[in-house]
């Protein structure tokens, strides 16, 4: 029997339209599931009263005689990453220093979601300042993979991905500076999209200044991902570079996909070896696309230490760019390490690293100019154990381990290209294994069209009944 938490975002919207349920009923159901035990550590803060008030308001609108012009996902529950300031809601940034911070304003992405009628159930767990590819903050429980609670949900959008994978919300907002949407999507068995640079507004104060970061959707289906991207691109302004697709991204899921040239890039730009099971899923994806009529060819992804090191300098500078007075002794060791290293760089060294990354990103794009889509493993290994990547005694070693794990994810941040992680494979232990597809700048429509065909060929929806992290009473 299908329960409310089993419904996707678009299925919920359709159920509202048919009068089969209402936002209040859905919000109450999902809040009860979270309250029964957020075993995956998805939420740092649950804003139950606000969610119920928003749901009641949505009920009134949906009961009105004229629903013309309502947003596509009006009344659908979601969650906001705890790095986004949310007026009146505790926003910790994953840091004990901000444990009690309640902002007075909304970041622009929060406004965009509210304008679309989405109902946030709270703030999803992040590592401190988003500065790790695992999500184990001091202010809340670690975010865990819904398929094995001993495994990390990765990061930094670990809580968001865990919330979606555990069926606590159908969609959630993430952000991605070095793979922070795609790595958690892989670990939690969901879809995660990093949009093209400049597609989704960052707001006047939300741009990182280097063009690495992008806000993006996490969902259980490709179509929900596309519909949520339509929401996130409804506002253009500060930080946006190009307009969204005419007609919307959801329509791209139904569009005919022409015969494409697709490259399977084997290996890792970080130089880390790719786990054999992870590599095998990427190869399965390539064979599947070949079977769908596309021209698929294989090439090696050579390690690129110049890109990797330059990107590391840029990322370190971003973590060190917070200029407010902070009690450095209260920060996590990895954050202290990054901030300390950032103080050692000169402006000339940072500029040189930016130039090197731009040059290497262009070289990668030119090397793959003959491909419409590039396939890579999302990350180099199955979900790691909680605590496995953390090394408080040697943060430099921790940074190296995180770089090895994320592997190729930095390429899309460096190039600005869109990339999507799909849960196309499963390890011998039943762990989700993501595969990444990358296309040229502004070609989210192409990625979504190809991804929709892969979802049909290699479906994963049945896997959510096998998850370990949802409350037992609500298991599908």
What report would you give on this structure?
This protein is of the alpha+beta class and 476 residues long. The protein has 14 helices and 13 strands. It has helices at residues 9-18, 23-35, 48-63, 108-115, 158-165, 182-188, 222-232, 276-291, 305-319, 333-344, 347-367, 395-406, 410-415, 444-457, and strands at 43-46, 77-81, 119-124, 144-145, 148-152, 171-176, 191-194, 214-219, 261-266, 295-300, 373-377, 419-426, 432-439. The strands form 3 sheets. The chain has an 8-stranded mixed sheet, sandwiched between helices. Strands 1-3-2 form a 3-stranded mixed sheet. Strands 4-5 form a two-stranded antiparallel ribbon. β4 (144-145) and β5 form a beta hairpin.
**Overall shape:** globular
Instruction: Provide a count of the helices.
Output: 14
Strand-pairing-aware structural class: alpha+beta
CATH class: Alpha Beta
End-to-end distance: 8 Å
Overall pLDDT: 94
CATH superfamily: Amidase signature (AS) domain
- How many separate structural domains? 1
Tell me the CATH topology.
Amidase signature (AS) enzymes
The largest β sheet comes out as: 8 strands, mixed
β-strand amount = 5-15%
List the quaternary state of the chains: single chain
CATH architecture: Alpha-Beta Complex
Rounded Rg: 21 Å
Helix content: 25-40%
Tell me the strand order in the biggest sheet.
6-8-7-12-13-11-9-10
Please write the string of helix (H) and strand (E) elements. HHEHEHEEEHEHEEHEHEHHHEHHEEH
């Amino acid at each position: 029997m299908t329960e409310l938490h089993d419904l996707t975002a678009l299925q919920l919207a359709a159920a509202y339209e048919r009068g089969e349920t209402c936002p209040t009923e859905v919000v109450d159901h999902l809040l009860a599931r979270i309250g029964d035990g957020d075993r995956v550590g998805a939420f740092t803060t649950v804003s139950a009263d606000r969610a119920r008030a928003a749901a009641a308001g949505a009920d009134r609108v949906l009961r009105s005689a004229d629903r013309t012009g309502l947003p596509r996902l009006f009344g659908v529950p979601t969650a906001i990453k705890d790095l986004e300031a949310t007026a009146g809601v505790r926003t910790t940034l994953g840091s004990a220093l901000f444990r009690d911070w309640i902002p007075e304003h909304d970041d622009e992405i929060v406004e965009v979601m509210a304008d679309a009628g989405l109902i946030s159930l709270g703030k999803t767990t992040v590592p401190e300042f988003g500065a790790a590819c695992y999500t184990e903050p001091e202010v809340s429980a670690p975010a865990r993979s819904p398929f094995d609670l001993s495994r990390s949900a990765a990061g930094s959008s670990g809580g968001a991905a865990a919330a979606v994978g555990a069926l606590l919300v159908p969609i959630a907002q993430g952000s991605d500076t070095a793979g922070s949407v795609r790595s958690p999507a892989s670990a939690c068995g969901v879809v995660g999209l990093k949009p093209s640079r400049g597609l989704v507004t960052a707001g006047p104060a939300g741009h990182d200044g280097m063009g690495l970061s992008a806000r993006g959707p996490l969902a259980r289906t490709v179509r929900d991902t596309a519909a949520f991207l339509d929401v996130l691109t409804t506002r253009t302004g500060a930080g946006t570079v190009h307009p969204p697709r005419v007609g919307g991204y959801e329509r791209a899921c139904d569009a005919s996909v022409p015969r494409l040239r697709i490259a399977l890039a084997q290996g890792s730009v970080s130089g880390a070896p790719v786990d054999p099971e992870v590599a095998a899923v990427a190869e399965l994806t390539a064979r599947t696309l070949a079977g769908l009529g596309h021209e698929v060819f294989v090439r090696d992804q050579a390690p690129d230490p110049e890109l990797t090191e330059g990107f590391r300098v840029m990322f370190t500078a971003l973590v060190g760019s917070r200029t407010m007075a902070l009690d450095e002794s209260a920060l996590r060791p990895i954050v202290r390490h990054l901030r300390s290293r950032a103080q050692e760089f000169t402006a000339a060294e940072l500029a040189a690293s930016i130039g090197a990354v731009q040059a290497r990103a262009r070289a990668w794009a030119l090397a793959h100019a003959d491909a419409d889509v590039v396939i890579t493993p999302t990350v180099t290994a199955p979900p790691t154990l909680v605590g496995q990547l953390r090394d408080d005694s040697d943060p430099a070693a921790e940074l190296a381990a995180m770089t090895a794990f994320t592997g190729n994810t930095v390429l899309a941040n460096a190039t600005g290209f869109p990339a999507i992680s799909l849960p196309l494979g499963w390890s011998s232990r039943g762990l989700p294994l993501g595969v990444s597809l990358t296309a040229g700048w502004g070609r989210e429509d192409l990625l979504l069209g190809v991804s929709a065909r892969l979802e049909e060929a290699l479906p994963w929806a049945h896997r959510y009944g096998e998850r370990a992290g949802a409350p037992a009473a609500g298991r599908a």
